[in-house]
Amino acid sequence: MALEANFLMDGSASSLKKDFKNSTLSPSPSFSSIPVCGGTISLQPQPLASLFNPNPRNGRLLQLLPRCAIAEALLLRAPLSHSCRHRSYAPFSSAALILRFPPNFVRQLSTKARRNCSNIGVAQIVAASWSDTPPSSAAASASASPIAETEVGGDGAAALADNPVQSPLAAAEADPKAAALAAAFLSSDGSLAVHAGERLGRGITTDAITTPVVNTSAYWFKNTQELVDFKEGRHESYEYGRYGNPTTKVLEEKISALERAESTLFVSSGMYASVAMFNGLVPAGGHIITTTDCYRKTRIYIENELPKMGISATVIDPADMDSLKSALDQNNVTLFFTESPTNPFLRCVDIELVSQLCHSKGALVCIDGTFASPVNQKALTLGADLVLHSATKFIAGHNDVLAGCISGSEKLISKIRLYHHVVGGVINPNAAYMIIRGMKTLHLRVQHQNNTALRMAQFLEEHPKIVRVYYPGLPSHPEHHIAKRQMTGFGGVVSFEVAGGFMSAENFVDSLKIPYIAPSFGGCESLVDQPAVMSYWDLFSSERTQFVGRDLVLSERAKYGIEGNLVRFSFGVEDFEDLKADIVHALEKI
């Protein structure tokens, strides 16, 4: 079996043949040398395996697929001697460096080779600079270089199988879980946020730097056998848009890498992530434990919807470990669920201690880390089984998309995924792309927001018109000691109570010029709201006991600690001094 590829260069035609029978590539007799830049490239027969060595100089791989541009590959791999302008290319054997051509030559060669290749774009030129490396250094460097895992067919595969050593990148591509656990050369959250899921094991073959958006509702199979192979796990692909998408998979692998998780499921919203988690893991008649301070819609779901399935709940203070122990002893608890930090008072749960207590009784632990973000806190490394985020907030970071995600072991996420496949709640691939793009700056945004929020909390705590500040980065916070131990930053949200009542808070908020009055947090734009209005206004209308001017006295919200003078401020990426001046001006109005 032979495969022939033709290309034109400097007006000369050449034919190079790939012979799988003897695993040797040979130049055609009429084309044994090429004049270039006043020198000559001499082509010689080469073992097939020599075509697939990575470039040890820069770690990149010459990627070849079946029916590739053989001519282009051979030019990059054949032993040669060439000089031009007194610059010498180091001659090399099958284990030595890839030839480095002048940039213009490489670009011309790649363009012309691909133009005449029957399968355009499947061979990549990766060397494009001069090399002054002496032969001895080149050989030493090449001998230390691993063989790249490359897709080949026929007897060529056997030739490559003799050397099982892989580069870190090839190993990550071969094992998808390696991407989730993070390769050694991506050790920081910043690098993981930029590259995880894309440089490591992207599910589709493309030369694009940016992950493409795959807009499709279904995926096709070449024949029934391929479908059967897919169903039985021998063929990797997708079936239906509700069950998976290549763009979304990149996003899931990126979060898995940041959270040090085996698997991640991305869904349409953070609230749906909570619902899918409860329904996928807690059996009918089960019991859960949660905390008093939390997102109100989550509380409503726990109080109103879970009982319809016979699921009961115990509610405790985030710091009350005695109540936690008692609830674990008295109930057959399936799951402990809490936010950390919580909404809106930013209470922090001792994740390590809670995990130990719950695991001793066979209960799972799920932490909603939305207010922390994966940059500031990694609940799984502290002992939690699951970590959940409203990706709408810090992860996406631009106030332009809704999404949620939940990460953990493959075993647990698979159970939640089964529920998700039945019910829906699918994230749109365009939204997934926008989150991927937003995550490129996640660590930069969060670091800036951490700094702004901490400085502003310190300033507000000293201001005479501020009664109290709630921020885990302050020593006055009740769980500051816990936050210091389990967080690397304290987040971009600060809650505080202004002097006076509801009207004082209203005057303050309305006098601000920079932040928008809006729900949500974690985006580039600063947002501000009064929780008493934004989240609890229905209690004002149905359960108010009296009006005092416009101050409202409520019995129901009092048990949640939501006072009329409470303000929640989400700091964006604006300049600190601009925000401070705006806040000072607004405080002067009360």
TrEMBL record:
Claim: Thylakoid is one of the keywords in the record: no
Assigned EC number: 2.5.1.160
Alphabetical GO biological process terms: methionine biosynthetic process; transsulfuration
Pfam families, sorted: Cys_Met_Meta_PP
Domain of life, per lineage: Eukaryota
Reactions performed catalytically: O-succinyl-L-homoserine + L-cysteine = L,L-cystathionine + succinate + H(+); O-phospho-L-homoserine + L-cysteine = L,L-cystathionine + phosphate
Pathway(s) of this molecule: Amino-acid biosynthesis; L-methionine biosynthesis via de novo pathway; L-cystathionine from O-succinyl-L-homoserine: step 1/1
Entry keyword set: Pyridoxal phosphate
Cofactor dependence: pyridoxal 5'-phosphate
GO annotation, cellular component aspect: chloroplast
Record-stated family: Belongs to the trans-sulfuration enzymes family.
Full protein name: plant cystathionine gamma-synthase
Organism listed in the record: Ananas comosus (Pineapple)
